[in-house]
Specification:
The protein has 155 residues and is an alpha/beta fold. It is built from 5 helices and 7 strands; from the N terminus they run ββαβαβαβααββ. Strands 3-4-5 form a 3-stranded parallel sheet. A two-stranded antiparallel ribbon has the order 1-2. A two-stranded antiparallel sheet has the order 6-7. Strand 6 and strand 7 form a beta hairpin. The longest helix has 13 residues. The relative contact order is 0.15.
Length: 155
């Protein structure tokens, strides 16, 4: 890390290393990240389209969620991978370095492939994941909403 702008920040019980000159960081969002992560259940699939260095994705993965985290900035992608290792959650997080639109297309198109990664079947537990995407266009504004639902059945 560049000695002039490199740092390590602790947030949500996680450590994040990055260089301020290379990536975006906003500590004011920490309460929002914590609020959302508390809503998730273990093994839910989370898509983070603009993950940055992982302030949302890493705590979600540490909470047991399966996270697909994307960022277009190659340096954010690098630090996202490093922070997943630093926080020992690299087996629960899949990192991507692509445009957000392409990431969503991949998640939709690859839904069957993603299910084979994220579905867990043991002798007593089956997890099924469904992703629904809705695109709405109004005048010059396009809004895309992606909803991921995970249902776990234990017998």
């Amino acid at each position: 890390i560049n000695a002039e702008y490199g740092t390590e920040v602790k947030e949500s019980g996680c450590r994040f290393r990055f260089n301020f000159a290379e990536v975006y960081w906003n500590s004011r969002l920490s309460t929002e990240h914590e609020r959302l992560v508390k809503l998730f259940k273990s093994n839910q699939v989370i898509l983070d389209m603009f993950a940055g260095v992982g302030p949302f994705a890493i705590p979600a993965a540490k909470a047991g969620c399966i996270v697909h985290a994307n960022d277009l900035n190659p340096r954010s992608y690098y630090y996202l991978q490093e922070n997943a290792k630093l926080n020992k959650c690299e087996k629960k997080i899949f990192c991507y370095n692509m445009d957000g639109r392409d990431f969503i297309r991949l998640m939709i198109r690859g839904r069957e492939g993603l299910q084979s990664i994220t579905n867990t079947t043991t002798t007593n537990t089956t997890t099924t994941t469904t992703t629904t995407t809705t695109t709405t266009t109004t005048n010059t504004t396009t809004t895309t909403t992606t909803t991921t639902t995970t249902t776990t059945t234990t017998t």
